[in-house]
Design brief:
Shape: globular
Distance between the termini: 60 Å
GO molecular function, one term: ATP binding
Catalytic activity: 1D-myo-inositol 1,4,5-trisphosphate + 2 ATP = 1D-myo-inositol 1,3,4,5,6-pentakisphosphate + 2 ADP + 2 H(+); 1D-myo-inositol 1,3,4,6-tetrakisphosphate + ATP = 1D-myo-inositol 1,3,4,5,6-pentakisphosphate + ADP + H(+)
Strand content: 15-25%
Bound molecules: MYO-inositol-(1,3,4,5,6)-pentakisphosphate, adenosine-5'-diphosphate
Organism: Cardamine amara subsp. amara
Enzyme class: transferase
Function: Inositol phosphate kinase with a broad substrate specificity.
Number of strands: 11
Radius of gyration: 20 Å
Length: 299
Amino acid sequence: MLKVPEHQVAGHIARDGKLGPLVDDEGRFFKPLQGDSRGEHEAKFYDSFSSNKKVPDHIHRYFPVYHGTQLVEASDGSGKLPHLVLEDVVSGYSNPSVMDVKIGSRTWYPDVSEEYFKKCIKKDRDTTTVSLGFRVSGFKIFDHQELSFWRPEKKLVLGFNADGARSALRKFVSSNSSADSNSIPNCAFASEVYGGILTQLLELKAWFETQTLNHFNSCSILMVYENESILMKGGDDAQALLRAQVKLVDFAHVLEGNGVIDHNFLGGLCSFIKFIKDILQSLDERDDETDTSQLENGN
Ligand SMILES: O=P(O)(O)O[C@@H]1[C@@H](OP(=O)(O)O)[C@H](OP(=O)(O)O)[C@H](O)[C@H](OP(=O)(O)O)[C@H]1OP(=O)(O)O
Ligand SMILES: Nc1ncnc2c1ncn2[C@@H]1O[C@H](COP(=O)(O)OP(=O)(O)O)[C@@H](O)[C@H]1O
């Protein structure tokens, strides 16, 4: 039985009779092929990329496992439609916090229509895509005080400036994160979550510094971690229980690289890494301040 994903944070959503992805109970994510060439394009990308021996195994694991395409009942009631069958990245998590970050300082690319170019460039300028080289597309976080999830409205998320993006990244790893814009995120899980995420981002960056196979236009980094482990007070193996992971999603606009580095993605990724590093560094400074004040107080 297919159902609407509980933890989807961006993109086309299967609600109000609209076409969107579905999931099953066996860890598979069904993404409908979009009517224009985009769906076919993404399927072709998965077909060739997933079996490309030039891509190292440690990089393949940053992409959802691909199980081909399948005709299934579409979410909009229009009958059977072809869907990409992918690994459901969040299926093994009970209470996942999830964030989708679209990487790159532009989402348009050569040879798109004038209409598409205008739509993209407007959105890129109105969001942090142009200024930061990435934009937060959507996220959901677990509020440990309210014991419930908070998923901000798309309009709010797409309205973030640099400070808004920074604050969202801090909220994503806080136990007091909530809809209250006055609450200061405590970054309680930043060290464990972003410690693990940073290692993965740096591994991806090293590959993007040399890979010239593809250009990943409009592609997103999906970050996920488990809250259940925190609720159970993880202990020494907190990092293992959190299972913080990074996956790349959305390949509807990927192009051949033709021997050229993907500077758009690489630049955006470097900028995103800097934001994560800054949060980790602010924790060290906070710890140093606490140590100093304890010494001053003779503790
Ligand atoms: O339809 P919109 O305006 O919500 O735009 C979609 C984007 O939403 P956004 O507003 O940037 O959060 C959406 O972005 P996210 O996946 O939400 O990051 C996609 O870029 C989508 O295009 P495609 O399916 O990848 O070709 C975009 O869909 P298309 O407009 O290109 O069909
Ligand atoms: N393989 C996956 N497993 C779990 N969730 C996914 C997967 N792929 C996408 N998603 C969810 O769906 C959202 C939209 O995916 P995306 O591929 O960008 O779709 P669209 O083309 O509609 O923008 C992501 O933000 C994420 O929440």
